[in-house]
Design a protein that fits this description.
It is a single chain. The chain is an all-alpha fold. The protein is built from 10 helices and no strands. α2 crosses α7. The radius of gyration is 16 Å and the shape is globular.
Length: 194
């Protein structure tokens, strides 16, 4: 990890994994780094976006943070919580990037990625796509998969089917490399279920 990225990581650490999803930031950053390398992207946008994308959850109440897992909640309420975590994330990210004197020509793009990483219906750039794909790949990772099963209170087999159907949706994952990683990880999760 580049020194500037490490500085960002260190400042963001106290805000990470606020939804009882220990390792989320680290795993998303791992996948973002991998995709950035495979696709030849600007890691000075992709990596900080990955590190900072979910720090806004730390500013919401515990009830709000976990409301997105409750199937009985109103979709509009869930959307409002997602929007709020993105807005709070932008505020914190702006402070952190300022503290490390991050390249000002990159800050606006990073903040734009964070601002709608969970709610935007389309992709605005390949850098943004890499961060969002990395965030979705969390669900396929061993830790993310079992975390989501625990939070959503569904069976492992059911979650495998949900992930498989998500992969078939257009605009779920942007890069073919992301789809390959997801498929490889899903096969591993299926073998763990057996």
């Amino acid at each position: 990890m580049k020194e500037k990225h490490k500085e960002i990581w260190d400042l963001a650490l106290i805000y990470q994994d606020a939804r009882d999803d220990k390792g989320h930031a680290e795993i998303v950053t791992y996948y973002a780094t991998k995709l950035s390398n495979i696709e030849g992207l600007n890691d000075d946008v992709v990596i900080p976006s990955a590190i900072l994308h979910d720090i806004g959850w730390s500013q919401l109440s515990k009830k709000e943070r976990f409301s997105i897992f409750d199937k009985g909640n109103d979709l509009n309420e869930i959307l409002q919580v997602r929007l709020r975590h993105q807005d709070e994330g932008v505020k914190l990210a702006k402070i952190i990037l300022s503290k490390v004197n991050y390249d000002s020509s990159l800050v606006d793009e990073i903040l734009e990625v964070i601002s709608q990483h969970d709610t935007r219906k389309f992709f605005i750039s390949k850098n943004e796509a890499a961060m969002r794909d990395a965030d979705k790949l969390w669900r396929f990772s061993k830790i993310g998969f079992w975390d989501d099963v625990r939070h959503s209170k569904i069976t492992q087999s059911e979650y495998c089917e949900i992930l498989k159907s998500k992969m078939e949706m257009s605009n779920f994952l942007y890069f073919d490399s992301s789809k390959k990683i997801a498929m490889d990880e899903l096969e591993k999760r299926k073998s763990e279920v057996r």
